[in-house]
Design goal:
This protein has about 350 residues and is an alpha/beta fold. It has 11 helices and 12 strands. Bound molecules: 3-isopropylmalic acid (IPM) and manganese (II) ion.
Length: about 350
């Protein structure tokens, strides 16, 4: 008997439910094709739910999610909820509680997708960013002194544990080894200024790196990394970095690979579950208009299949997405695709059925 996966679905707010519906449509098509069985558990958390009930997320749900094979997330964020509440209460809470210590963001330009980079194409733009996902400035260490007075002080500290850094680096080296034949890992840091945090990162990088003699080790400061991502993206194979720098550089990554219509990411515990998402956010102005690009959510499903070890199914999804981009879509942008959101999902699902 093949395994039956139990998958969570957290569609969330705004355009989240629309794009997740297309992701699930494609999942169904590929599951039929590849003989994959799965059950879905739907969660209703998000801004809408919070405004209605006052509940952000509940611990029973988090405990249930811990045992799931994977979760597909749409978007969390609501214009009527103060910034920080849902981000910290749902997204960061899940990353920390489920110890999803890897944030994996492929930056891959598919043939037929426009990039803002002049004279760069799919040959040049194809790398993965591995962002540490549970520590650094995101750990929430620090506080206020004399808040609201003229003498107030705000301290926000970056937490970098040897264990946390090492497990992230080890994952990055392993990922780099099996990704392709380039085998080059770039540590992105700021060793010239953050002389404690990135001293630890750099030492750990070279110590762990001794176990990976087949992998070329490279280093770039974060500001230079931003520059090279725009000027010479072909220099990168895998980039590993801390939480804050990873957050920033992956937005550049999303833009050079064609924008939020296609960019997906995974929050992963390599020994456990993972949450996979289109990284574009809830896009309130497009909500309910059937105009947003669901390919990012479909690529999140592709990443989820990789995490489950269903590499053949993942490949079918990626090929279908490439086919839809090349044969059908006029643009990656909302309203400009030449098709509606659900039609794009149909095209991708059909491409899988006809593959
Ligand atoms: C991301 C997002 C989140 C982050 C926000 C929404 C908390 O920007 O996943 O990159 O900063 O990590
Ligand atoms: Mn971000």
């Amino acid at each position: 008997m093949p395994k039956t996966y139990t998958l969570g679905v957290l569609a969330g707010d705004g355009t989240g439910p629309e794009v997740v519906a297309e992701g699930l449509k494609v999942l169904q098509a590929v599951a039929e094709r590849a003989g994959i069985r799965y059950d879905l558990i739907h969660y209703r958390f998000g801004g809408e739910h919070y405004l209605k009930t006052g509940e952000i997320i509940d611990n029973d749900a988090i405990e249930e999610m811990r045992a799931l094979d994977a979760v597909l997330l749409g978007a969390i964020g609501h214009p009527d909820v103060k910034p920080g509440i849902l981000e910290k209460g749902i997204l960061l809470n899940l990353r920390f509680s489920l110890d999803l210590y890897i944030n994996l963001r492929p930056v891959k330009l598919y043939p037929g997708v426009d990039t803002p980079l002049k004279n760069k194409g799919p040959e040049e733009i194809d790398f993965d960013v591995i962002r540490e996902n549970t520590e650094g400035l995101y750990a929430g260490a620090g506080g206020f002194l004399k808040k609201g007075t003229a003498d107030e002080i705000a301290v926000q500290e970056s937490i970098n544990t040897r264990k946390g850094v090492e497990r992230c680096l080890r994952y990055a080296f392993e990922h780099c080894r099996q990704r392709n034949q380039r085998k080059k890992l770039t540590l992105c840091g700021k060793t010239n200024v953050l002389t404690y945090a990135f001293d630890l990162w750099e030492r750990a990088f070279h110590e762990v790196g001794e176990e990976y003699p087949d992998i070329e080790k490279d280093y770039a400061h974060v500001d230079a990394t931003c520059m090279w991502m725009v000027k010479n993206p072909e220099w990168f194979d895998v980039i590993v970095t801390d939480n804050m720098f990873g957050d920033i550089i992956t937005d550049i990554g999303a833009m050079i690979q064609g924008g939020m219509g296609i960019a997906a990411g995974g929050n992963i515990n390599p020994q456990g579950t993972g949450i996979f998402e289109p990284i574009g956010g809830s896009a309130p102005k497009y909500t309910g208009k059937n105009c947003i690009n669901p390919l990012a959510a479909i690529m999140a499903v592709q990443m989820m299949l990789c995490h489950l070890g269903e590499s053949q199914a993942a490949e079918l999804v990626e090929k279908a997405v490439m086919k839809v981009i090349q044969n059908d879509l006029k643009s990656m942008e909302a309203n400009k695709m030449g098709f509606g959101t659900s039609q794009v999902g149909d095209l991708a699902a059909d491409a899988i059925r006809n593959a």
